[in-house]
Amino acid sequence: MTMTTTRVPEPRRVGVGRPGPAPRPTCPMTGSAGPSPVGPVGPPPTSRPALSLLRQAADGLAEAHREADPLLRYPAAYLAALRAGAAVLAVRARPRARRGATRNVWQLLAEVAPELGEWSVFFASCSDTRAAAEAGITRLVGQRDADDLLRQAEQFVGMVATSLTLR
Fold this sequence. Notes:
This protein is mostly helical. The protein has helices at 48-66, 70-92, 105-112, 117-125, 127-134, 143-165. It contains 6 helices and no strands. The longest helix is centred in the middle third of the chain and has 23 residues, at 70-92. The protein has a domain at 48-93 and 103-165: Up-down Bundle (Four Helix Bundle (Hemerythrin (Met), subunit A)). The radius of gyration is 30 Å and the shape is globular.
């Protein structure tokens, strides 16, 4: 008795050992492979209101540089920083109904962007001096105070601009 063996061909393996894209799973109902994969989705682009506030902050810094009088320089620098803080809020804050005490930009900024918390505390501490400068109280605002605040505002506006334009 002779045994005959029938050889069954092995299934053909395409691309074995070669790296390549993994097969996409298909839907059992439709046989569709679904949407094609998309690269990593980044954060949304910076909003127009935020960009507008950043431009206003830059203009405020330029105005502060033009002012020689510390009673004008100090508030201009402060307002530039305030607008940069508002730009962060325009991008990150989500409006919520809240009862009770009102909160200012610096309080909201510390909540929404904890990494800017120290800046919030610093600029909040400058609020009364800004009000005094706007009221013309010369004994509270000197040339050095105005120059120091302008430098701090420049750093803050630059940091905010960098962080928001990367979005």
